[in-house]
């Protein structure tokens, strides 16, 4: 389970169908701010992503997703260990660890599975 | 000086001030891995905030442990991340500021060296954290000075 911004937890629908989102892959440490996710710790990114509409979660609850990425741009030769989802302007929506770290080379492309943000049903 | 939102201020993109949680170091014990102490993301077999695997030896034998041990080996071959053993210090982002208050982090745009697609070292501009302060006004004062008086 990754970090999810309070504004997203409070109002998941605010992110539904939102356009212009950005996903970065990050190195060194888990990003704690927008600046770290998109600059300090970023080694690649994909911009112009459109979030999905609200739908049922995989298990329960409701979710939105950032689409899978097939052509992200690697901007630095590093070992990526985390991702950060932002509004590409000033807000870190969510961040988490990659399922496995990955050595990336500047100039190449990266792929990433869809990122799901789910508000689970009450237990 | 322009506030992009209530937590992020930019000084002509030369300096930024942004509120964020601290990365704290805690003993890697069952007690501290409990979700009431640290974020649920931090648990046996997962990574701490610096990418180190948390106590992989303590995972139950099976496919999941095998996958994690392979990952540990891959990281070792690359010379990154490593492992946190029981009782050693693990790093956790204190997202809820339970252990340490959020700080105003001051980032300066600097030329840093990176390796490009040809394997050459090149300089690129990145925001590098240069200071952090608990007080907002204090952080703004430091940032204003760094930015050469921009306000």
Tell me the major beta sheet of chain A. Answer: 7 strands, antiparallel
The main β sheet of chain B shows up as: 5 strands, antiparallel
Classify the beta-strand content of chain B into a percent band.
Answer: 35-45%
- Summed up, the domain count of chain B is 2
Distance between the termini of chain A: 16 Å
What are the segments of chain B in which pLDDT stays under 50 over at least 5 consecutive residues? none
Number of domains of chain A: 1
Order of helices and strands of chain B: EEEEHEHEEEEH
Outline type of chain A: globular
Radius of gyration of chain B: 19 Å
The topology string of helices and strands of chain A comes to EHEHEEEEEEEE
The largest sheet of chain B has its strands arranged as 1-2-3-8-9
Q: Please, could you describe this protein's structure?
A:
The complex is a heterodimer of chains A (123) and B (151). Chain A has 123 residues and is mostly beta strands. Chain A has one domain. Helices cover 10% and strands 49% of the residues of chain A. Chain A has helices at 6-10, 34-40; strands at residues 3-4, 21-26, 42-49, 55-56, 62-66, 69-74, 78-86, 92-104, 109-112, 115-119. Chain A is globular and about 40 Å long. The two termini of chain A are 16 Å apart. Chain B is α+β, with helices and mostly antiparallel strands and 151 residues long. Chain B folds into 2 domains: 2-20 and 102-146, no CATH class; 24-93, no CATH class. Helices cover 21% and strands 36% of the residues of chain B. Chain B has 3 helices and 9 strands. Chain B has helices at 30-33, 63-78, 136-146; strands at 2-5, 8-11, 15-20, 23-27, 53-54, 83-84, 89-93, 103-115, 121-133. In chain B, the strands form 3 sheets. In chain B, strands 1-2-3-8-9 form a 5-stranded antiparallel beta sheet, with helices on one face. Chain B has a two-stranded antiparallel sheet with strand order 4-7. In chain B, strands 5-6 form a two-stranded parallel sheet.
């Amino acid at each position: 389970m990754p970090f999810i911004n309070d504004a997203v937890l409070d109002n998941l629908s605010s992110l539904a169908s939102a356009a212009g989102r950005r996903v970065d892959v990050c190195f060194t440490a888990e990003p704690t701010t927008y600046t770290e996710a998109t600059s300090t710790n970023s080694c690649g990114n994909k911009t112009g992503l459109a979030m999905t509409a609200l739908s049922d979660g995989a298990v329960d609850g409701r979710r939105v997703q950032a689409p899978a990425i097939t052509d992200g741009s690697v901007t630095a030769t590093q070992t990526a260990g985390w991702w950060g989802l932002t509004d590409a302007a000033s807000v870190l929506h969510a961040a988490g660890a990659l399922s496995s770290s990955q050595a990336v080379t500047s100039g190449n492309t990266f792929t990433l599975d869809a990122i799901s943000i789910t508000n689970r049903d009450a237990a | 000086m322009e506030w992009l939102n209530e937590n992020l201020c930019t000084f002509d993109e030369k300096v930024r001030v942004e509120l964020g949680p601290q990365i704290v170091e805690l003993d890697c014990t069952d007690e501290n891995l409990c979700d009431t102490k640290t974020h649920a993301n931090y648990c046996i077999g997962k990574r701490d905030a610096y990418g180190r695997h948390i106590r992989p030896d303590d995972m139950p034998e099976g496919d999941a442990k095998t996958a994690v041990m392979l990952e540990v080996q891959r990281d070792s071959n690359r010379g990154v991340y490593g492992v946190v053993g029981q009782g050693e210090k693990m790093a956790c982002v204190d997202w809820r500021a339970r252990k340490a208050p959020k700080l105003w982090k001051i980032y300066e745009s600097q030329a840093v060296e990176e390796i490009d697609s040809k394997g050459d070292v090149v300089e690129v501009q990145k925001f590098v954290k240069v200071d952090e302060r608990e007080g907002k006004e204090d952080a703004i004062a430091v940032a204003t000075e760094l930015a050469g008086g921009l306000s």
